[in-house]
Amino acid sequence: MKTATVKRVPRTFGHVLANILSSSYLGAYRYYTLEPIKKIERDQEEIVGGQLINALVEFRRLKEEELSFIAKAATLSAAAVIGIFSWPSTEHTIWVAKMLWNWSFFMSTFSMIGSAPTRLLQHLPEKDNNEKYDERTVKIALNLFLRPVDKSARAGGKMKARKISRSMLWVWQCPAMLMSYSWVLFLIGYALHVLSPVFSPSLGDVSSTV
């Protein structure tokens, strides 16, 4: 009993930490990434019936919709940072705000160029009646979401179902994470800029040398 409890502690801690880190985009993360992948995990054996193909098609549709929005939002975030640095008042703002704006620009840029998910979507069916996606091809597509098959793990003589791959889950949500963080950092930096008059003059002197 104690051993099982101890083993659950790292998993629980990881789950809580993941929720905290994704809090700024949790709704989008669940709608566009987590729930569709969970559906693929549930339907991984339903190849003949078509449920799995439908799940893959739906995931591709949702992810294309999300990536299109992310590209626009990240572009707007980068443009906002470039625009705010053109303000004369930013020369005397607190240095922390400038640092946050630079990190915001960095994250929005990498969100735009992080096109790995876009390329991966090419391996998924666009329509549920796509004939080229036979059983073998669909199983290959599952590698984009699920862990490799564990041939040593069997349940009643049958291969156990594959679980969601955490590394692939991170890949699929990474553009949304970077875009979200870029806006969070930009807004925090802007709040510090607005509050610059309340800081001591020494902080203003430091910021003018950055």
TrEMBL record:
Name of this chain's protein: DUF1772-domain-containing protein
The organism's place on the tree of life at top rank: Eukaryota
Phylogenetic lineage: Eukaryota, Fungi, Dikarya, Ascomycota, Pezizomycotina
Spans traversing the lipid bilayer: 69-88, 100-121, 169-192
Keywords: Membrane, Transmembrane, Transmembrane helix
